[in-house]
Amino acid sequence: MKLNLNNITLKISAGFKKQFPADRIPQVAFSGRSNVGKSSLINSLLGRKSLARVSAEPGKTITINFYDIDGRLYFVDLPGYGYAKRTKADQEKWSSLTDGFFTSNRNIDSVKLICQLIDSRTGPTRDDLAMIDYLQQTGMPYVTVATKYDKLNASEKKKFHDALQAEPLCADRPCICCSSKTGEGRDELWAMITESCGL
Q1: Radius of gyration of the chain (CA)
Q2: Exposed e or buried b per residue across 80-104, where buried means at least 16 C-beta atoms within 10 angstroms of its C-beta
Q3: What would the pLDDT profile of 20-41 be if each residue is shown by its tens digit?
Q4: The dihedral of CA 180, 184, 187, 188: what is its sign?
């Protein structure tokens, strides 16, 4: 039975680990640096314009947002990392909350896929590579997703893919190229999500 994308709610914006939902349904988390386009991608996947709030100020929100999709799946919007203008206290809160999602999440076995977003205009940053290394070391299931792909011309696309292949952590691993504006990559990413979650 297909997911009803008209039945979506924001379950909770969790600012503390104890607020993570206890429901044992599959979770798909979206990870990436601030302003990489996580909210835009989530809205595109769900066919919404403003379900996930697109912040005008990168790094402003430090919560983990759980979106309940038809009572059968959670999309988990992790707070963006790598925003230099964050205060030290905010950086520590982000680190604690995000670390808690992976290390203190009572339903960590329900996390079926991490969508690790990389801005196609910049290529993988040091923070992106650190996150990918963590996912590989812990054996978490993940897929690399390139955002804002429509903004690249042919030569820029080649440069991006060359940059991925030049990184040992990224080389020879699949990367789904997406555009929230054109919908490119949407069906491919949904196919991976539904397969990973057994939906």
Answers
A1: 16
A2: bbbbeebeeeebebbeebbebbbee
A3: 998 889 999 999 988 898 989 9
A4: negative
Residue 30, token pair as written in the block: 């979206």
**Element containing residue 124 per DSSP (H, E):** none
State how far the Cα of 146 lies from the Cα of 104, in Å rounded to an integer.
28
pLDDT at 56 over 80: no
Q: What is the architecture, at CATH level 2, of domain 8-197?
A: 3-Layer(aba) Sandwich (3.40)
**Residues 89-134: pLDDT tens digits?**
655 666 678 888 888 888 899 999 999 999 999 999 999 999 999 9
Please state, for a pLDDT cut of 70, what percent of the chain lies above it: 87
Q: Which two tokens stand for residue 61?
A: 């929100």
Q: What is the DSSP secondary structure assignment for residue 43, as one 8-state letter?
A: H
Asked whether the beta carbons of 134 and 126 are under 8 A apart, the reply is no
Structure tokens at 9: 């709610």
